[in-house]
Specification:
Radius of gyration: 16 Å
Bound molecules: inosinic acid, magnesium ion
Strand order of the largest sheet: 4-3-2-5-6-7
Number of strands: 9
Number of domains: 1
Structural class: alpha/beta
Shape: globular
Helix content: 10-25%
CATH architecture: 3-Layer(aba) Sandwich
Number of helices: 3
Length: 180
């Protein structure tokens, strides 16, 4: 039997409904365009797979792998691109898919990097947004859910590389960390 973990903040049912809506909206907004859906791994893998299948227009898929090292004072220095895109996005309509936008530094850095490749358009879609935690202002065109400043795991999001496989989103509290 599945062990319940943490306090679910967004249920699987809520995610299904919201992702269906996002897929519809993105399909309408990008109809007739040349959409490349760029997923940020590892965190966005679960959301990406569901979102891509909720989009009902032909798209290209691509990914970048990013790592963040903790404990640096300069938060922008922590983001490291481990892989490059495989698609040529010049002149294409790019939608970057993130798990969560917190300070905004990761998204800002990635958007800057992608913009250099001269796509026709570039937008950001994030499953979650911690609006109150921004250090830099990034525009998130498509937001799944706005969440308060709590540490969230599951559905791709990790705590020290674990819990990504939880099928729902849960708040990690101190009690849950006792076994870490
Ligand atoms: P930012 O650069 O501060 O916006 O942070 C973005 C990255 O930090 C995300 O892509 C996540 O990998 C990670 N992150 C931020 N908040 C959380 C959280 O609540 N749970 C899990 N990962 C998080
Ligand atoms: Mg992470």
């Amino acid at each position: 039997m599945e062990r319940m973990f943490g306090k679910p903040v967004v249920t699987q049912e809520q995610m299904r409904t919201r992702i269906r809506e996002l897929g519809k909206q993105i399909s309408a907004d990008y109809a007739g365009k040349d959409l490349v859906l760029v997923g940020v791994l590892k965190g966005a893998y679960a959301f990406y797979a569901d979102l891509a299948r909720a989009i009902r227009i032909p798209i290209r898929v691509d990914f970048i792998v990013v790592t963040t090292s903790e404990g640096r004072t300069n938060r922008s220095a922590k983001v490291k691109l481990v892989t490059e895109l495989t698609e040529n996005i010049r002149g294409k309509d790019v939608l970057l898919v993130e798990d969560i936008v917190d300070s905004g530094l990761t998204a800002q850095r990635l958007l800057k990097t992608l913009a250099k490749k001269k796509p026709r358009s570039l937008n950001l879609c994030a499953l979650l947004s911690k609006q109150d935690c921004r250090i830099v202002d990034v525009h998130v065109e498509y937001v799944g859910f706005k969440v308060p400043n709590q540490y969230i795991v599951g559905y791709g999001l990790d705590y020290r590389q674990k819990y990504r496989n939880l099928p729902y989103l849960a708040v990690l509290d101190k009690k849950d960390l006792q076994n870490e």
